[in-house]
Specification:
Blueprint: H1 2-17, H2 21-33, H3 45-62, H4 66-71, H5 73-97, H6 102-112, H7 117-123, H8 129-159, H9 165-197, H10 201-221, H11 226-244, H12 247-281, H13 285-310, H14 313-320, H15 324-328, H16 333-341, H17 347-354, H18 363-380, H19 384-391, H20 398-425, H21 429-448, H22 451-484, H23 490-508
């Protein structure tokens, strides 16, 4: 109940004060953590890694552009591997300078290193497609790198001993290759299951719900990266789904996952906020000042390293790669500054910190610093709107042009196929002529394409949609009145309401993936 109320309040407040919902949810979670009856609530790390993370990463990967990932693969790989390792090492070095032993320092670095996919998806909205894709893909993949570093550091810290460079390399290879392979196997099983099930949307979407957890657990069984398994599985299914998933299944899936990820995202930020008071309670008065110093230094290191990365590696790449196509893909300093601000940390970092066993003497310090860095990076999200305005990023006209291309090509090819379809189905000539006229009118509007015709078409569409929605509302009120007068049954009411709802969704385009 508390989570639900916090979600509702944060959503309503965010609409009025224009503050990013994750920040408000963190604040509400911290306030809930001060309530005595809720102060004992703990966020089990296993719940984040097994319940929250697979579902959230799966939907993020399903709705990410694979083409854009291919186009920016080098940047994404560098961000999700080299930058993560550099961040973990930088944090470990700074923490060690401030008195933290090397083992716990690397544990802290591994926990803090990855950016958070859920925070990025919320706080980086409205950016150009290329920037958004790079940020989302980075946050989807870098969890795997960071969790391997964290696991290695934790093993050395708890069990003692050392790991050879070859052994570390083998573990990284297993994590990546095993995770991707587990994702491919799970995607193949999901496609096979959908073929066996057929067109039943409930069963097909049950497969969709189970899929990310199967991928995650299958990878974990072979000690590979469950995160990469979920991401690889989602990317494969994003390519095969449009051919194999029916419209009813897809509409139901979008509605389900949109609500589910909204609730999971919000609940996760509230639960993170609820751990903040507890992270302070775990420190004594003597260690709190030291922990605050470590937090300030580590927070500055995390943010600073991302800024340094954004203004060094691009110039190194430019010096090494002078191909004409590479020059066309160069990004200006203002756009790189936006990327530098978007290094938000979140649930994976806190789950890793909470997973540190109590046998590690610096556990309370690790949890406190990790929680503080999460808050610090999310507070930077408050600056994002101002940074984006200052950056004056060029308008991304690509999606609109591609939408026009898709609509025009699809309409023309449908017109060309209309006679053959009419003959094959034995349709009356009157029906064929009516459809031809509708498609020709639609194509004429697309072909004109000038600003004035677009404006007129938009006005006509808005007026048509408004009138149609009013008529639908009138019909809906009529059938409800007939039900109240006991002239029709509730079953009939629901059947007719369902048809009217489908028509309303078609007119308003309620179900979208963004």
């Amino acid at each position: 109940m508390a989570l639900g109320v916090a979600l509702l309040l944060a959503g309503m407040i965010a609409q009025r004060v224009r503050v990013a919902p994750p920040v408000l949810l963190l604040v509400m979670g911290a306030l809930l953590g001060l309530v005595p009856v809720l102060s004992m609530v703990r966020l089990p790390p296993e719940a984040v890694l097994l319940l929250f993370l697979p579902a959230l990463l799966y939907w993020e990967s399903l709705t990410t552009s694979l083409r854009e990932i291919y186009s920016n693969l080098r940047v994404i790989v560098l961000l999700s591997t080299v930058l993560v390792i550099a961040t973990a090492g930088g944090v470990a070095y700074v923490a060690h300078l401030l008195g933290v032993a090397w083992g716990p320092a690397w544990v802290l670095g591994g926990a803090i290193a990855p950016t958070d996919a859920t925070a990025v998806s919320v706080l980086a909205r409205g950016l150009p497609r290329r920037t958004t894709t790079v940020l989302r893909a980075e946050s989807l993949v870098n969890d795997g790198t960071a969790l391997v570093i964290f696991g290695l550091a934790l093993t050395v810290t708890v069990d003692g001993g050392e790991l050879a460079a070859g052994q570390v390399g083998l573990l990284f290879l297993l994590a990546y290759a095993g995770g991707v392979l587990a994702g491919f196997v799970t995607a193949w099983l999901a496609i096979l299951a959908r073929r066996v099930i057929g067109d039943d949307p409930l069963l097909a979407n049950t497969v969709s719900v189970v899929t990310p957890f199967v991928a995650f657990l299958l990878a974990e069984v072979v000690h590979a990266s469950g995160v990469l398994a979920v991401v690889a599985c989602g990317l494969v299914l994003s390519q095969t789904g449009p051919r194999t998933v029916t419209a009813r299944t897809r509409t139901q899936a979008v509605a389900f996952w949109t609500l589910t990820t909204f609730v999971l995202n919000g609940a996760l930020f509230v639960l993170i906020g609820m751990q903040l008071p507890d992270s302070v309670r775990g420190l004594t008065d003597g260690t709190l000042a030291h922990a605050a110093v470590v937090l300030a230094a580590v927070g500055g290191t995390v943010v600073g390293l991302r800024f340094v990365w954004g203004f060094t590696t691009p110039y190194l790449i430019r010096a090494l790669d002078r191909r004409p196509q590479q020059r066309l893909r160069r990004v200006g300093a203002r756009a790189r500054l936006v990327n530098a601000f978007a290094g938000f940390r979140g649930a994976v970092s806190l789950a890793a910190a909470l997973a540190v066993p109590s046998a590690v003497a610096e556990r309370d310090l690790i949890v406190f610093v990790t929680s503080g860095v999460i808050v610090l990076t999310l507070l930077l999200g408050l600056c994002m709107p101002a940074v984006v305005r200052w950056a004056r990023l060029p308008e991304d006209d690509g999606p609109r042009q591609e939408l026009l291309l898709a609509q025009t090509t699809a309409t023309r090819e449908a017109l060309d196929a209309l006679p053959e379809i009419g003959t094959r189905l034995g349709a009356e000539e009157l029906v064929v002529s009516r459809l031809r006229k509708e498609y020709e009118q639609h194509l004429a509007g697309l072909d004109e394409g000038d600003e004035e015709s677009d404006r007129v078409e938009r006005i006509e569409h808005e007026q048509y949609t408004t009138m149609k929605l009013e008529l639908l509302a009138h019909k809906r009120a009529t059938i409800v009145r007939l039900r109240d007068e006991r002239r029709i049954d509730d079953v009939v009411l629901r059947q007719l309401q369902g048809r009217l709802d489908i028509e309303e969704v078609r007119l308003t385009g309620t179900y979208t993936t963004e």
